[in-house]
Amino acid sequence: MLKKIIFLALILGIKNLAAQTITIEFPAFAGKTYDFIIFQGDAQVKVAENDTIPTNGIIEIKIPKQYAPYTGMCRWLLTNSQTGGGLDMAIPGHGFRVSCLSDKPNENNIVWHDYDAMNELNRLNVLQQKIIDKFETMSKALELYDATHPIYASLQQEVATQKQAYSQFQQDLKNNTNYNARFLPIVNLTKGISDKLSNNYEEKAKSFSAYITNELNFEQLYTSGHWGGIIQSWAQMQAQLFQNKEIFVNDFKTISTRIDNPKIYTDFVGKVTYYLTQYGKDDYIDDIASTVVLSGKITSYEGNTMQVYVKAKIGNQAPDLIITDSKSKTSVLKSKNFAKKGFEKTLLIFFESGCGYCEALLTQLAPQYETLQKRGIDIIALSSDRTEEVFKFTAKKFPWKRSYCDYQGLSGINFKNYAVIGTPYIFLIDASGKIEKRLSTYDEIMQVK
Q1: Is the peptide bond before 150 cis (omega within 30 degrees of 0)?
Q2: Which of 76, 152, 240, 245 is 20 to 30 A distant from 177 in Cα terms?
Q3: What one-character-per-residue DSSP string does 114-154 give?
Q4: DSSP letter at 242?
Q5: 93 phi-psi bin (left φ>0, alpha ψ -120 to 50, beta other)
Q6: CA quadruple 346, 348, 354, 358: dihedral positive or negative?
Q7: How far out from the chain centre does Cα 18 lie?
Q8: Which regions of 295-402 does DSSP assign to beta strands (E)?
């Protein structure tokens, strides 16, 4: 296969950055069409699209000025070849040239001019893997003996030696100015390899999270092609493994101070917000809202994900509900009238039929509805269902009568006004129509006073 993952070295020095040009010479593929892609977060920017390789096999890709000098991953893809192919390459902040005269490119016949990035990356990978392999082998051997065995102490010492060697390797990476030394830790994160050796899963996870929080360069991550996946992993660990809101908020604040670029910061906040919602941690979002808004780095609050920071905020008047009946006639339910006479609070629950967590939550609430009413709490349910038949089938199973649906899915006006990006999504509204809090779980609902 032509496609190889190749990483190019970072060469320090004064460069002419006005025109960052990537020269690719593959004469055996003359006449083939290609795309050339660079990464901006999860977006793939096509610098060239369906261009044709000329008869001499040489193409010159100029990085657009708005992205230059670009440091990060790029992708050269053949688009009309039956066998496919291409190169994944790292651009080290300046232009370079790569060539191959063979019609069967491989690591031995691809030539990187003026530097050798391939051997450097291989050297780093091999050195790292040797340490990891020795550590894992010695750790497994240590499990075979008890502390009284003559060999136990030497095995224990070898485990400690490999931990120290790995720690030194990580320090050497930080001191290494080669771009591979910047990119390798990002690749490690995608493989679940932390910057500290441990056989304890929780310790590895904490090390993984700490590295992202305190050391990861988010500008380099933004152009690495691994943006969304690593942010999701971090958010998932915070929400589902650690489950400590105070730690999350502190870590989020740390990262907030470390990302200076407003575009990158906005994208980061959007990703974290989306995943927290998916993991049922809406209360986490509430606790970082002031940090986000006061950062001054949000470029836009467009889209439902970011609207959560400017719409339906705790302490604000809840948006009125636009109610559509079966004949498509609409009416307005004012938020100050959410609470029926004799009720002090209203649970506003956004749900979807077929959503397992939604139906489990609503099924748990159904037998508690009378208890909630005695405590002065009523329920309004809003569905993102697309069909009347599905909605009515679900709604009739529950005792609360105020269930509504406009059959517009998550694009419905009420979902937009409340910046709901996933279900279930729950608001507690007080008697005056103000948003008191957002809730995520059955236990939180039953603890409402």
Answers
A1: no
A2: 76
A3: T--HHHHHHHHHHHHHHHHHHHHHHHHHHTTS-TTSTTHHH
A4: I
A5: left
A6: negative
A7: 32
A8: 321-324, 330-333, 345-351, 377-383
Q: What is the pTM of this model?
A: 0.80
> What is the C-alpha separation between 3 and 237, in angstroms, rounded?
33
| pLDDT level of residue 85 (50, 70, 90 thresholds) | confident
Residue 11 above 60 pLDDT?
no
Cα separation, 398 vs 111, whole angstroms: 68
Contact call for residues 394 and 383 (beta carbons, < 8 A): yes
Asked if the peptide bond before residue 319 counts as cis, ω within 30 degrees of 0, the response is: no
β-sheet bridge partners, residue 84: none
Cα–Cα distance, 57 to 59 (Å, whole number)? 7
CA distances from 416 to 174, 266, 413 (A): 45, 19, 5
| Site of tokens 């040009």 | 21
Compute the distance between CA of residue 375 and CA of residue 4 in angstroms, rounded to an integer: 64
Helix count (H) and strand count (E) of the chain? 15, 16
DSSP-assigned beta bridge partners for residue 323: 331
- Which pLDDT value is given to residue 399? 97
Coarse DSSP helix, strand, coil percentages of the chain, rounded to the nearest 5 percent: 45, 20, 35
Q: Give the integer Cα–Cα distance in Å for 256 and 148.
A: 50
Task: Judge whether 86 and 98 are in contact, CB under 8 Å.
Answer: no
CB atoms within 10 A of CB 268: 22
pLDDT value of residue 421? 84
Residue 20 CB: number of other CB atoms within 10 A? 22
Q: Which of 32, 10, 49 is nearest to 105 (CA)?
A: 32
Altogether, the residues listed in the chain come to a count of 449
Measured CA to CA, the distance from residue 427 to residue 429 in angstroms comes to 6
86-92 vs 43-52, strand pairing mode: unpaired
In degrees, to the nearest 5, what angle opens at C-alpha 192 toward C-alphas 191 and 195?
A: 110
